[in-house]
Amino acid sequence: MASDHKKTSRIVWLKRLIISSLLFVVLLIALPYAIQFGLIKGLNNAASKTVIIDDVDFNPFTGKLAISHLRTQEPQQADLSISSVNLQIDWLPLFNKRLLINSLTIQDAHIKIQQKDSQTLYIGSIKIPLNGASRDTNEEASTSWELGLNKLNIINNSFTFQSDAFSDDFTISQLTINEAFSWDPNNLSTLSFNTQLNTSPINGHIRASLFSEQPSVKGQLNVKNLNLNAFKALAGENIEELKGLLDTDIKFSLLLGKNSIDYSQTGSLSIKQAVITSASVQHTLGSGDWSGSVQVITSPEKPSINAEGQLTLSELSSTNQLTQLVLANTQTLTVKQLSIKKLNNIAISSVEVGDLSIGKTASNNSLLESKKLIIDKLQLHDLNNIDIKKINIDGLNAVLDINKQGDIPLLNTLTKSLPAADEKKTSETNNAAKPFQFQVANIDISKNSQIKFSKETELERVEKKIMIDQLNIGNINSLTPKKPTPINIQATIDQFSKLSIKGQVAPLSEKINTSIQTQLSAFELHDFSPIFKNELGYTIENGQLNADLDIDIKDNILDGKTSLEINQLALEPANESTAKKITQQLSMPLESALSMLRDDNNNIKLNIPVKGDLASPDFNISDVINTALGNALQGTVKNVLKYALQPYGVMFMAAEKAYGIATSIKLEPLIFPPGDSVLAENSINQINKIGELMQKRPQLSIHICGFATQHDHMFLQNLANSDSADTSTSTAPNEKPLQEPLLKLASERQVAVKTHLVNNYHLKATRLFTCKPRVEKDLNNETTAKPRVELLI
pLDDT tens for residues 578-588? Predict the structure, then answer.
């Protein structure tokens, strides 16, 4: 009986073992299908489309799970498609409430991410709420289990993100994460990646404490040709256009505190082909490069930014697209040794700006140009106090073009083309901020600089070129507005006239305070005849001005004196009504008054006091000068009339009057070939004798008057008609087109003579006077009709 019972018991246990084994085998066989079914069921419930999985393989002994070809069912490209997912879990840590993933590999996946509104995100058609309303958060459950990852591999995966603002493709060729454990928060996990945003490669290697309460990240990042247009939506509504390609090669570190962020980096950043358009102004940048270190710390107590490095920009330009005016343009801008200390202390060794232009039109006319501008030793304190050691401007080219109304059109266009400031924000900023202070120790403009002056009149355009020989401005300090600033300007007007301005000014003083001494020599007045015609009613045939001005202004009170020496002045009436006003002021015609003032050399000397209150509403500098000049003329004439009215008048009236010049000697003219301004050999011999004579007689002065005649007119006309078959026919030439070349030819002839005397005999320009060029059309007199330069003593 006992034996039968024992045998029966064994059979029962054998049956149970067989059944259990069969159940276990069935479970092993069914488990992958169950997992597959569960995944499909769960994904179908979450997704808006049918999800398909080709195969699921699970080994409970090794903890390996393999999923093959998971995808959404669509006729074209699926929103979600994963070729393979391989997962291996370590079972033993589960007993310690630790989920340890030994390895996870996701390969050949394509996932479409859509954000249709601000509340919902769709990842492969799986709906993910963004407002957190549907999340089940149980902090005790989430913190009771710990997560660990030995190795994560993502290979050849692509993501497409679509929203109203963005549409970008992100490809992960290779991404690896090693050793990330929540139970070891201080462990540094390694992350390396080789990715691509649209067509821009993004690669890096990072070490990070992912589970630390204060995570830290260190590593290097390389970006190539990242298109900034992809981030236009983040730039704000005011940015109408954003373009550019960004490159980075940096090493960085990031520490996330409870209430702070500490970020630092070293290396280089570069951007090229950048375009930013805002408020109709387009800013372009050919390339920009930063090399150095940056540290940014954000904290409620002491936020700060620290930087050390160099910034180089090229082909930087700002253009108003409505007016087509280039507000500013520079070929290169280099900031050397930039140092930023806690935002309120910025120091720059130097700022170099190459080929700068301001206010450039479509026809390449600029208000201001400079070959090179260097700002040396710039410091910014507390964001409202600037100290500059020196500003050096090389190759300055300024254009002062004044129209008939007295305006500078290009300056007006530039002012209108600047972007309008937000008056409300500006007012709030001005009320809240401390007064802005600045100091510039020295401003220097190099010798190869010039100012082009032009004034449009009813008759013609007056043009002058002012060449800067020296321009230096001393210390300007807004903290001491009454302290005078020394200035020294030495310039040459056209070729021979010299201008010197020395003294002190207080440019920031509430009231005007200045003391300036100005000297002007050998200034030819006939060039300004169209301007003086409106003021005096006379045209200036010839005349040369030497002037000494001593201007002293104290708290808006002007007290100055001017010494004028006008040599060989000759006037012709041009506007009777304007001339009458001068006559009434002088009690005699202007030409009569001037004749009384001329000495034996036909020169006029005047001492003119200038006084006035600049703060007075009735003050007008033009009225002050006219009144002072009139009083000086009238007073000097009266003194001369007391002693020599009759003899002087008789001598003047008896003297020969040629070309508006009171002269007693007229030399043989220098003859030129028709159409030519080069001195002939016989003319050189003649002018050499004149030069020797003037060397022997230092007080002797000479007038040099260039003429173009009908012979020149015919020569130029024949030259213009050189392609015609019949050039001998005598026809009345068209005079208007040739008038300007003839005047230019006459001017070139007299300049050639003056240059010869100055260069070969070292004569002072103050002894040589050029006349207003003339075109003579009289063919009756053979001598006067010849092309020539006449010399008058």
Answer: 777 766 665 55
